[in-house]
Amino acid sequence: MKKYTYTEKKDTRSGFGAGLHEAGKKNDNVVALCADLVGSLKMDAFIKDFPERFTQVGIAEANMIGIAAGMTIGGKIPFTGTFANFSTGRVYDQIRQSVAYSNKNVKICASHAGLTLGEDGATHQILEDIGLMKMLPGMVVINPCDYNQTKAATMAIAEYEGPVYLRFGRPVIPVFTDPDQKFEIGKAWMVNEGTDVTIIATGHMVWKAIEAGEKLAELGIDAEIINIHTIKPLDDEAILKSVKKTGCVVTCEEHNKFGGLGESVARLLTTELPTPQEFVATNDTFGESGTPDQLMSKYGLDAVNIVEAVQKVMGRKK
Amino acid sequence: MKHTIKELEDIASQIRRDIVRMVHGCQSGHPGGSLGCADFFTALYFEVLNHKKDFSMDGIGEDLFFLSNGHISPVWYSTLAHAGYFDKSELATFRKLDSRLQGHPTTHEHLPGIRVASGSLGQGMSVAIGAALTKRLNNDNSYVFTLHGDGELQEGQNWEAAMFAPFHELDRLICSVDYNGQQIDGPTKKVLALDSLQAKFEAFGWHVINTDGNDMQSIVEGLHYAKTLTGKGKPILNLMSTQMGAGVDYMMGSHKWHGTAPNDEQLATALAQLPETLGDY
Fold it and tell me: Does chain B have fewer CB atoms within 10 Å around its N or its C terminus?
């Protein structure tokens, strides 16, 4: 198992804030909008340097999505910022008609996704957003795994023409990816090469997959770990290549197993290479109040759950 | 004036003929609101709008128009064809398989003149605000026009947008409301009364003007006047009274022709009331 270490912990939303600031410095057409959550979305640096390119919309997310769609007409590249729940479910029809169907170059940037939002509880902890967004034709769906990857992803989507959903989170987590990485949309990152099982993880679950890989190594299991940061378009080639070698797969996501990354992987494998698969994901449930760690544990999203899923899926291998 | 009132009325008559023929041709679509807005579209595209013949999505240096109540697409398609955006023969494909003239307007099929999809109601004002913000950032002093149904104003997103535009002093935004008092399930007064739209928009900080949307003189003067109101920090709302089905006697003033196609006999009756002025498609 390749050794991963970290010297600091940071939130992925701060990676977004830093990436937005960099994208703004690089391209005058980058503009930002927010629905009364500037501090939570870490947009302060962008606003300080480019006040005229920032629009405070107030608590009116539907209007924000429509305005963003309109701002593309004339060449702007709008980044909208609010919590994941209010970025997706609340404004689904606005995204569907004014952004996706109209093929507008809008970047929907969503913080506080999943259970790790914590104490605010289920009203704010969306676990369905990946499913909602990946079903929209033409929508790119990205869920990066740490501060550095989120920063790189934010800069990369500014250079991509078309609608994008970028999902990130609230808690501080280890920073373990390369600060100078080049982010390629739709390209999987090989975290660790192995032979016994393929673990495919996205977002906050990537670090947990690394922790699980270390535990599995102690048990004599050689896990291949792949980071899928781009859920759509999915890196079919990387997944198929790995699964051909290992013969079984565990998918890990901070999202409902109905409609998430796991289902995308299952769809691919069912048609191309039927393979035993286990899902580490929430199971058709809403969240609740609690600390992020308590919630990840209660809802089965810890390293120990990945280890158990690996043992189960390896038992199903032919 | 680029045209006389009579010339504009003749264009509107041809657009009305196209509308009933298009809706009859596919036996679906929305003739009522389309007919009611034929004068507005004629005035806008042939007299008021500063637009370029070669369509570009970005519309730099030209006025933009967004149709929020997308179901009245027949009137827009006919107007765009006669204004030179595409050949009028294409009007025959309306709502048919593989057509660029979808039931509701879309950018998806790359029809020149359309800059955003509409159909699901209540989204057009927000999009227009975004386009106006970009024009401001680009130092582009062109105008942004919209049209909304009156029943459509029951959608809450309109009021988010209505609150935003005056706060940001978007005084080159000119929104018109097709105030015909009808919607699918009946008169707006019975479905969900709008009460005084003038008082509502003025309370939100808009400059409200009133026009007769089926009187060419009134609508042309109203839209020209609206353009002169810039510089005062207020977006402009053109409250435009219209008759659903205007120009076809048996369709006028009733919600029953909101989304119903005429049969062969009804088509003949309608066309007899609408002189062919520019040549049918």
Answer: N
Cα angle vertex B178, ends B173, B180, to 5°?
Answer: 160
Question: Are both A118 and A254 inside the same structural domain?
Answer: no
- Model confidence at B53, pLDDT cuts 50, 70, 90, reads confident
Q: Same domain for A241 and A169? A: no
Measure B205 CA to nearest chain A CA, in Å: 17
Bridge partners of B176, per DSSP, are B147, B238
**Domains in chain B and their CATH numbers?**
5-272 (3.40.50.970)
Q: What is the CA radius of gyration of chain B?
A: 17
CATH of the domain at A302: 3.40.50.920
| Same-domain status, A71 and A164 | yes
Q: Are residues A159 and A35 in the same domain?
A: yes
Tokens 């790995």 belong to which residue?
A242
Cα A35 from Cα A14, distance rounded (Å): 17
Q: Structure pTM?
A: 0.97
Nearest alpha-carbon partner for B181 in B242, B100, B256: B242
- The distance from CA A95 to its chain's CA centroid, rounded to whole angstroms, is 18
Complex prediction ipTM? 0.97
* Residue at A120 is within a domain: yes
User: Do A168 and A31 share a structural domain?
Assistant: yes
Report CA-CA distances (Å) from A89 to A2, A59, A93, A112, A261.
39, 15, 9, 14, 18
Given a contact cutoff of 8 angstroms between Cβ atoms, the answer to whether B148 and B124 are in contact is yes
Contact A70 B137 (CB under 8 A): no
Residue A224: domain span: 189-315
pLDDT band at B269 (very low <50, low <70, confident <90, very high): very high
Residue A50: its chain B contacts at CB < 8 A?
A: none
Residue B138: list chain A partners with CB under 8 A: 74-75
Residue B23: pLDDT above 90?
A: yes
In 10 A of CB A312, how many CB atoms? 13
Work out the minimum CA distance from A114 to partner chain B, whole angstroms.
Answer: 27
**pLDDT tens sequence across A261-280:** 999 999 999 999 999 999 99
